[in-house]
Write a structure and sequence with these properties.
- 21% of the residues lie in helices and 25% in strands.
- The protein contains eight helices and 20 strands.
- Strand 19 and strand 20 form a beta hairpin.
- The longest helix has 13 residues.
C-alpha cells in the first residue's frame, strides 16, 4: 500500500528512470483502480447486449488465448467496460494484461477482500460494468469473499443483477470458472482425485450459482487428472452432471439457453452421475469427451458434434486417461457409444456415451 506522498515520489522516480512504457498501472491504496485503454491494438466487433441473462465464458486455466479474450470483449457490448476481479490471486496476477492487446476497452481492476464487498463504491463500480472476469488462484478465497455461507454479498448481488437482468457477460479462468456452479471445489492439485477416492477428502465451498441448472464446473481437468475427485463430488453433493474443462480450453454458455459450445483449445468432459452413485461406489458414470466446435446441453445430454468430424469405427478405441498412483479407472463402451474424428480412424477427437468407474488400489 502506498500513501499519497510515497506514490508521488514513485511516479517522479519512474519519470526520471527512462522509458517505462511497459508500466501501465501502479496499484495504489484502493480496492478499485482503472487501467487506461491502450491507443492501439485489436478492435473487436461488439455483440449487442439485451435485457435478460448474459453469457458465460469458462476457461480451464493454462494459456489464455487471444481469441478467448476477444470473445469476452465482444460479448461485453458496443461500449465494453470490463471489471477484472483479481481476488483469487490476491492481486498478484497483473490480470489486466490478459486484455491489454485490445483497443477501446475500459478496464477496472478489483482486488477485493471480504471487508470490501459491502462498500458502496465497490458496488457502484460493479454496476457500471458490462462484463466481469474472475481470474485464477484460490477458489476458496473467491467463495469466502463474495458468497460467505452461501449468501450473496452486495458486490456479488451487483454482478448477479448485471448478469441476470442486463445481459452482462461473466467469464473466468481456472478458479474463476470453477466458482460459477452451485459449489466450487477448493483443491486443484493432481493428488486430489486420490485423496477423494481413497480417503473421502475433498474440500468445497459455496459457488456463485450463476448457471440456470445445477452443473459442477471443474478446471485443469485432464492436465491434472481430476476425473476421480469430480465423480466423488457429484455423488457427495448429488449434482447430476459436471463439466470438466482442460487447460488452454474454453466453453461458452449462451445466455439465451441454447447449447454450450467448446470454443477453443483441447478437450471438455461431460460427466453424468448414475442414480445409485455413492461416495464409496463410484461406478458406471456416463462420460462424453468433446473437442472445439462441439455443442452440448449438460442438462439433457444432447450433443451436436462439429461438422468437420466424421463418425469412425470401431467404437471400442480405448480412452487413455492419465495414470494416477493409488486409484484405477475403468472405461467401457455402451450401445450408444459413438466416436468421431477429423484426423483419421486412429485418433478420437470426440467420444459420446461411454461409462467410467474409479476404484482405490
Amino acid at each position: 500500500m502506498f500513501r499519497a506522498p510515497a506514490l508521488l515520489c514513485l511516479l517522479l522516480l519512474a519519470a526520471c528512470a527512462g522509458d517505462k512504457s511497459d508500466i501501465r498501472v501502479i496499484n495504489a491504496s484502493t480496492a478499485v483502480y482503472e487501467v487506461p485503454s491502450t491507443s492501439n491494438g485489436t478492435v473487436v466487433k461488439p455483440i449487442a447486449q439485451h435485457d435478460g441473462r448474459g453469457s458465460l465464458i469458462l476457461h480451464g486455466g493454462g494459456t489464455f488465448r487471444h481469441e478467448i479474450a476477444a470473445d469476452i470483449i465482444a460479448l461485453a457490448g458496443p461500449d465494453p467496460r470490463l471489471c477484472l476481479i483479481d481476488t483469487a490471486d490476491n492481486g498478484q496476477g497483473q490480470i489486466y494484461r490478459l486484455f491489454d492487446d485490445f483497443r477501446g476497452v475500459r478496464l477496472s481492476v478489483l482486488n477485493l477482500q471480504p471487508s470490501d464487498t459491502g462498500r458502496p463504491d465497490v458496488a457502484a463500480a460493479l454496476h457500471d460494468c458490462t462484463g466481469f472476469f474472475f481470474g485464477g488462484g484460490d477458489p476458496q478465497r473467491l467463495a469466502e469473499t463474495f458468497r460467505p455461507h452461501g449468501r450473496d454479498t452486495p458486490a456479488l448481488a451487483a454482478i448477479r443483477e448485471r448478469f441476470e437482468r442486463h445481459g452482462a457477460v461473466v467469464a473466468g479462468s481456472s478458479a474463476g470458472a470453477m466458482v460459477v456452479g452451485p459449489v466450487t471445489l477448493c483443491e486443484c492439485g493432481a493428488k486430489s482425485s486420490v485423496l477423494a477416492v481413497t480417503r473421502g477428502e475433498l474440500f468445497k465451498a459455496p459457488g456463485f450459482d450463476l448457471l440456470s441448472a445445477p452443473v459442477l464446473i471443474d478446471a485443469h481437468f485432464f492436465a491434472r487428472g481430476l476425473l476421480g475427485r469430480h465423480m466423488f463430488a457429484l455423488a457427495r453433493d448429488r449434482i447430476p452432471v459436471g463439466v470438466g474443462i482442460d487447460e488452454d480450453t474454453a466453453v461458452l454458455v449462451p445466455g439465451d439457453g441454447s447449447p454450450w459450445v467448446v470454443l477453443a483449445g483441447k478437450s471438455v468432459a461431460v460427466v453424468r452421475m448414475p442414480a445409485d452413485a455413492r461416495m464409496d461406489s463410484l461406478h458406471h458414470f456416463g462420460i462424453s469427451i468433446l473437442s472445439p466446435g462441439d455443442h452440448f446441453d449438460p442438462a439433457t445430454n444432447d450433443i451436436r458434434v462439429a461438422s468437420q468430424r466424421q463418425r469412425i469405427s470401431p467404437d471400442s478405441i480405448p480412452i487413455n486417461w492419465p495414470a494416477t498412483q493409488g486409484i484405477k479407472y475403468t472405461f467401457a463402451t455402451t450401445a450408444d457409444t459413438a466416436d468421431y474424428s477429423a484426423s483419421g480412424p486412429e485418433r478420437i477427437e470426440t467420444t459420446l456415451n461411454r461409462v467410467v468407474s474409479v476404484d482405490p488400489l
